[in-house]
Design brief:
With 244 residues, the protein is mainly α. It has 9 helices and no strands. The relative contact order is 0.13. The N terminus is likely disordered.
Length: 244
């Protein structure tokens, strides 16, 4: 009975840590693949939470800000400054509104320069996801090659030709392919997450461009009166001098 209980305990423990035989089957390349998968999942959770909160805060801030600027531009700065630490669109608007009644071209350049400065913050961890997407299949292929080399190095051709020890060869080949399957899986997950985050980035950049254009239009309307139609000037009649 104790031996049976001990066997059952070992079997249940083996089922609980079934991932470790898979990692051992893939060889040393499973270590960077595991690190890359953990980093990919961590980045996905952080970035999705970031984009969700950013979109929510921008939708709650910008429509009232634009309405306030159309009525009282001086109060807009005080309203934007508390949000400058966590909202890129707030920092972009402040970069242009803090200027002392600039020329419309200077106002637009300030918005564009501030937008360009915020792009690296919005595209954070893109390089990491691209690296995992590119390196994971290569690491899996490397693990397959080293596994096949290890399997064929220990192969006894005389015993194999007699039909014995073929199960060991099959086991070695299947273990060598584990790294390739793992690398492709990690690469597909990283590629899917990168595409989703890239879509969030494009959507947020389009929203920032729309808000900047709206702010620029309000600035031109208030300070430069570009939207007011010019009054047609009466045509001057040329008086012809009488000839002698």
């Amino acid at each position: 009975m104790p031996a049976q209980d001990n066997g059952q305990h070992q079997q249940s423990g083996g089922n609980g840590v079934a991932i470790w035989p898979i990692l051992a089957a893939g060889g040393p390349v499973m270590v960077p693949l595991l690190v890359g998968s953990i980093a990919t999942i961590t980045v996905a959770i952080e970035r999705l939470a970031f984009w969700r909160q950013l979109r929510r805060d921008r939708l709650a801030l910008m429509p009232p800000i634009l309405d306030l600027y159309a009525r009282d531009p001086r109060s807009t700065l005080a309203r934007l400054q508390p949000h400058a630490d966590r909202l890129p669109i707030a920092r972009i608007c402040l970069a242009a509104l803090e200027l002392d009644r600039p020329h419309p071209i200077a106002f637009r350049l300030a918005l564009q320069a501030a937008t360009q400065a915020e792009l690296p913050h919005l595209r954070r961890f893109d390089t990491l996801l691209q690296s995992v997407t590119g390196l994971a299949p290569l690491l899996g292929l490397l693990g397959t090659v080293t596994g096949l080399m290890r399997a064929f190095t220990g192969l006894d051709w005389d015993s194999w030709s007699q039909g014995s020890k073929t199960s060991g060869i099959n086991l070695g080949l299947s273990e060598a392919l584990v790294s390739t399957a793992t690398g492709l899986t990690v690469a597909l997950i990283a590629l899917s997450i990168a595409n989703s985050l890239r879509a969030c980035y494009r959507r947020e950049r389009a929203a920032i461009t729309h808000d900047c254009r709206t702010l620029e239009r309000l600035y031109l309307r208030r300070h430069w009166h570009f939207d007011r139609p010019s009054r047609p000037q009466p045509a001057r009649r040329s008086r012809s001098r009488p000839t002698a």
